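ok so I'm stuck.
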Amino acid sequence: MGRQILRFIGRALLVLVSFIGIYLLAAWLLSKVPVNAGAAKPQDGIPIYLLSNGVHTDLVLPLAITEHDWRSLLDQNLLAEPDSLARWVAFGWGDKGFYLNTPTWADLTASTALKAAFGLSGTAMHITYHRSLHEGPVCHRILLDPEAYGRLVQYIANGFARGASESATPIAGAHDTDSDVFYEATGRYHLFHTCNSWTNEGLKACGAKACLWTPFQGGLMDLYAPLP
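replied:
not stuck anymore, here's the structure
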């Protein structure tokens, strides 16, 4: 009996290690396959930014321009310290439990990680306000024409869960800093649809360069890194 148990554990570990290896290989390979690589780049257009913290990516859009005013959906008064000088708003989608219960990697628990990996938790939209952004290794500027920008706006807006009044639903008391707030979101987070996958799908939706699939931020940031 003891030998059978050890054999079962060994096979289970082999399956797990094989799955992780195949997952990582697929993530690396598919992130190298570009989508919309040949799309025409506007000489002049609406700037957005692809912003990374090293693990997670955000799509950063103008807070209020002629084409769209996000203040019709987002309430800046929910911030711990509203900033009237903010000109940009960053959108990050992800697992609700991970967002709210893991302010640092030291706070990550096995329960939170497993629920996120297998889609057993809800999702949230993380909104951060910025006064300005500066291009660099973790911040890439992208120009969109008005029609492409409109598609991106619609994609992001569809990520918000709506209340009875069709307004976005804030998560009470949820903040990481004085300049951010969380809202309830739509969709399921899991191993194959991560925060970075959501960002990648948004870029696909508006016709910008994107990866065929990527669960990690590296593929996207490499795609927009300037040529040496």
